[in-house]
Amino acid sequence: MEKELIVKWKIKESETQGILTLLEELVEKTRNEPGNISYHIYQSVENANELILHERYADADAVEKHKTADHYQKIVLKQIIPHLEIREVNLIKKLF
């Protein structure tokens, strides 16, 4: 069964530009993962420090493989998460 996530990141203001430079590699490598259906990152128009990630995977196993992928460990866990003020991860389901 497909798994879909909405993730909200609020980046520490002084770190935003550095984080934005990491996203191209993250998106490219994530989209090439087996089991990834789509992966998009959006930036708030009102606040450049707020990002929304919309992720879709083929199943729960694909989500777990994403979390253990080398690029996720290197980019997200080590280089992005330490510079976030807020990180919210929501597993969602489509109603209509």
Automatic annotation (TrEMBL):
A Pfam match: ABM
PROSITE patterns, sorted: ABM (PS51725)
Superkingdom of the organism of origin: Bacteria
InterPro entries: ABM_dom (IPR007138), AI-2_Isomerase_LsrG (IPR050744), Dimeric_a/b-barrel (IPR011008)
Keywords, ordered alphabetically: Monooxygenase, Oxidoreductase
A molecular function (GO) term: monooxygenase activity
Record's keyword annotation contains Cell cycle: no
Xref: Gene3D superfamilies: 3.30.70.100
Tagged with keyword Oxidoreductase: yes
Positions of the ABM domain: 3-92
Matches recorded under PANTHER family: ABM DOMAIN-CONTAINING PROTEIN, QUINOL MONOOXYGENASE YGIN-RELATED
Protein name: Antibiotic biosynthesis monooxygenase
Organism: Pedobacter roseus
